[in-house]
Amino acid sequence: MSGRQIMTADEIRRATTRLSHEIVEKQAGTDGLVLVGIQRRGVPLARRIAAAIEENERVAIPVGALDITFYRDDLSLVAQQPVVKGTDLPFDLNGLTVILVDDVLYTGRTIRAAMDALVDFGRPQVIRLAVLVDRGHRELPIRADHVGKNVPTSREESVRVHLIEVDGFDGVDIERLVPAAAGSA
Amino acid sequence: MEGDALEADDARSGDPQLPAPAPAGWSHRHLLDLDVLTWPDIELVMSTAEEMRDVLDRPIPKVPALRGMSATILFYEASTRTRVSFEVAAKNLSADVVNVAASTSSVSKGESLVDTVRTIDALGADILVIRHPTSGAPYLAAEVFGGHVINGGDGWHAHPTQALLDLFTMRQRLRGGSVAGRKVVILGDVLHSRVARSNIWSLTAAGADLWLCGPSTLLTGFEAWAASGGPAGRRFHVTSSIDDALRDADVVMALRLQRERMASGLLPSLREYAARFGLTAARLAAAAPDVLVMHPGPMNEGVEIAPEVAAGPHSVIADQVTNGVAIRMALLYLLAGGRGAAAPAP
Fold it and tell me: Which residue among A176, B39, B47, B200 has the highest number of C-beta atoms inside a 10 angstrom radius?
């Protein structure tokens, strides 16, 4: 089932490039800057942003990957524990500016979990948040510093980000959720 | 696992009110033996344990995955490493841990296993780790316990977490990362060993060329089993010739000689056992140059294994202990991390 497309591959590319400029501008350079992608589509997004920064600034920004599974606040609610996909933070976070990168910002619970996970690794000077799509409906006092595209949605809709690295193609779709049929579980 | 990973992602970015997607593979409420695990289940335990190893290497080796859950560790037999390993594993996942030693509990006043388990259940435990000298006791516990039961070793029957940590350690340390086709020797008192029984299951399933070696009095039943073809479709040998067993072996796992067996006349003397079946450096020289030496502990150094072998360059005994924590974290997370089979989604 495929829904209405709200971002094309070109739009994702432009948004990623703009995010890379915004991040460097806000930091006034690249000193002490690292990107941490949230598993799973945040990781390739972080790598793309890092590549764009390198193209413009001629500086390689370290990129890490963060799995927030163990920090989810709904672990005791989900029927099936999620598959853990791996955390790799190849730098000492203390004193750095960490840009958390994720594909969709929705309730904010993932970001809450990600911040809890990060501070178990060290004490960053600053944590900022960059997302490709902000679809609203926050349940926690969290906002993004850098947004690729703001998309008004209803809670009955689902926003799906597809990236070549994970899904084989680039694009963002929005679709109306059909109540899950018993047969699909 | 690609599809599973995507589904897990969707649970996060999708609507939190919706039921979680199709199971990622783990559907077991208890871990009583390995015989109910499929090969994908075992792979899932291994990959989850890899993540837990990474957690153990963090500055703060603790994650909140089981926060608010309570684990009771009920041991009717002496144990250091298994009991402590479960306790550390549960604490690393932020569960609360209660230890019950049978010797200091109402068991010493004659309370039955079922009553003890019911009491622990009524006290609010979510997870019960049980070790018992009677084979099958964890199955009885699982019948009356409302949460998750993990077998920490029962009689001669099974010690599933030990076999999983042994497999994990072999895959971690063997070149190529696989036991398939590798010669693995289990040496010693196979007859009384739940460690051996669980390892026979997992190692033959993993495709190892498995050899059991020991005095024939401690191989009773296994020789006949091997002669009749052994486990179907699996590579399995039984021998009392330590030279045949050790030749070109990739892994040698020495088992503890349970001294209490002397009384039953199965062995003439400790000294004769050590001379004929002890794992010495001279004997190990016949094995593959990068052979791994393992022991589930506790060791009788100088009996089933020479001290210089136990502490030698081939020994991965310390890795087994560390990996034991990671494996038990993985199992606790897989069994109790979601609502699991105990309370299916409405």
Answer: B200
